Amino acid sequence: MRRMCLGIPGEVLEVHDDAGLRMATVDFGGVRREVCLDYTPGADVGTYVVVHVGFAITEVDEAEARRTLDVLRAMADAVETELGEPLP
């Protein structure tokens, strides 16, 4: 069986350095994870980013992020597999 790989949008809450890597705490509609920001150098607190396997891969506006999270909530099993827990 093939697994679906998702890019999930979230809001950057905090940015910090971790051994030379630009890292952030990102909120995915209630689920928070540590994410690497090295591929999105313009991302800062308040920015919405699309995250895939722990890396922010692009920035996205808030409205698009919220629409995408709503769709992902409707696909709860796929999101739970990707994040390790369901979106609230």
What does this structure look like?
This protein is an alpha+beta fold and 88 residues long. It has a single domain, classed as SH3 type barrels (Roll). The chain has helices at residues 62-74, 76-83; strands spanning 8-18, 21-28, 31-36, 48-52, 55-60. The chain has a 5-stranded antiparallel beta sheet with strand order 3-2-1-4-5. The protein starts with 7 loop residues before the first strand and ends in a 5-residue tail after the last helix.
What is the count of β-strands? 5
CATH class: Mainly Beta
Note the overall shape. Answer: globular
- Helicity range: 10-25%
Instruction: Give the helices and strands as they follow along the chain.
Output: EEEEEHH
Span of the ends, CA to CA? 27 Å
Class based on secondary structure composition and strand pairing: alpha+beta
In what range is the share of β-strand residues?
Answer: 35-45%
- The CATH topology name reads SH3 type barrels
Tell me the number of structural domains.
1
Instruction: Give the neighbour order of strands across the main sheet.
Output: 3-2-1-4-5
Mean pLDDT: 87
Rg, alpha carbons: 12 Å
Q: Outline the low-pLDDT stretches.
A: none
Q: Please identify, by name, the CATH architecture.
A: Roll
Mind describing the biggest β-sheet?
5 strands, antiparallel
- The number of helical elements comes to 2
Q: In a nutshell, what does this entry contain?
A:
This protein has one domain: SH3 type barrels (Roll).
Q: Notable features of this structure?
A:
SH3 type barrels, 88 residues, 2 helices, globular, alpha+beta
Which helices and strands, and how do they pair?
Elements: E1 8-18, E2 21-28, E3 31-36, E4 48-52, E5 55-60, H1 62-74, H2 76-83
